[in-house]
Amino acid sequence: MRRVSIFGATGSIGQNTIDLIARDLERYDVVALTGGGNIAQLAQDARHLKADLAVTAYEDRLSDLRDALAGSGIEAAAGQGALIEAGARPADWVMSAIVGAAGLAPGLEALKQGATLALANKESLVCAGTLVLDTARAHGARLLPVDSEHSAVFQALVGEDMSAVERIVITASGGAFRDWPLEALRRATLEEASSHPNWNMGQRITIDSASMFNKALEVIETREFFGVEPDRIEVVVHPESIVHALVGFRDGALMAHLGAPDMRHAIGYAMHWPDRQDLPVPRLDLGQVSQLNFRHPDDARYPALRLARAVMKRGGLSGAVFNAAKERALDAFIAGRIGFLDMAATVEEVLTRFEAHPGLIDAQMTLDNVSQTDTLARRWADEVMQVRAG
Length: 390
Ligand code: NAD
Ligand code: MG
Prior knowledge:
Elements: E1 2-7, H1 12-22, E2 28-35, H2 39-48, E3 53-56, H3 62-68, E4 75-78, H4 80-88, E5 93-96, H5 104-112, E6 116-119, H6 122-138, E7 143-145, H7 148-156, E8 165-172, H8 182-185, H9 190-193, H10 203-211, H11 213-226, E9 233-237, E10 243-249, E11 254-258, H12 264-272, H13 286-289, H14 303-314, H15 318-334, H16 342-355, H17 358-361, H18 367-389
Parallel strand pairs: 1-2, 1-5, 2-3, 3-4, 5-6, 6-7, 8-9
Antiparallel strand pairs: 8-10, 10-11
Bound molecules: nicotinamide-adenine-dinucleotide and magnesium ion (MG).
């Protein structure tokens, strides 16, 4: 029996992971499931998968969770400490699918136990890449990519030597607004930003796809995960979302990974790696797909990509600043307090403010320092947005 835990079990990635595990339940011993406010879903899945422990991120929901699990024998817990305790429970394979920087600490804890960490939570690598990789190395733990682009690159690299890699190309659908005139973006509404043309994902990453912040995070994730120099990472807009990434080698060959836009492929690959197993994903009929289009992203339309380049150049804790400011700006956009284009402008101003404090950016990459920087960047993002609102 393989011991597995799922962090962020009630979300889009979490539910897709549960879908795969539930098809093959006798092979898995489910240790811990974590979620947020959707207690009914969390309890239902914990019962179905016979988990040992269910954790909600919200302390004030503990009694609801206890009630929902009454008579099941499943342990209930709540709050930040409990999320980290879930990470400390011995498991062989852990899905890291909490959204945002909140996923970092539980994932680090799982790595400290030597678990294989399937990483959907790209923010972990953006905020604290070196810390995550060093923790994995120190504890003999393995990190596997779940982001579709990074899973694609990982698969294209099987049997290859990194020294032969010339470039990595990750694709971007362009999100909800790829064909909108630039001027119209200013007035884009929450509802318009919350629907993705190809992928069915959580609301936050869907909006990040429209603003290209998701791709910006993924470029940094590529740099951290594969250890490639920033100038070897390219982004290409590919509206069909069929080619997920390509790896270019020194002999000019480009190895592409194609598949239907269904996250169960990347999740299943990380689950069964290094083997391949049957997965319930749609098979492509290329005759029906018929066309694959590619174009260079327009920098004026997508300032997030330019900011990601600046962050990679700056290094240190600037990734944590970038992510935290983005999360705060996204909160404000979702709450209707700022416009769509204000998100990138806010993040840029926060990064500029930090430039005046190199000591903060260059502080040692410990979990404490990353958390403090994250907190400060959120506060500064709030201030910047207040000033901008006049
Ligand atoms: P989601 O919003 O659907 O789910 C997020 C999960 O995290 C939920 O279980 C929620 O309860 C939990 N959560 C939210 N805030 C939390 C907090 N502060 N503390 C603890 N738990 C919290 O998100 P998603 O779309 O499943 O994305 C999860 C992660 O996977 C993100 O990092 C995202 O970038 C990445 N990812 C998602 C997709 C996708 O197809 N959805 C694809 C690639 C990468
Ligand atoms: Mg992705």
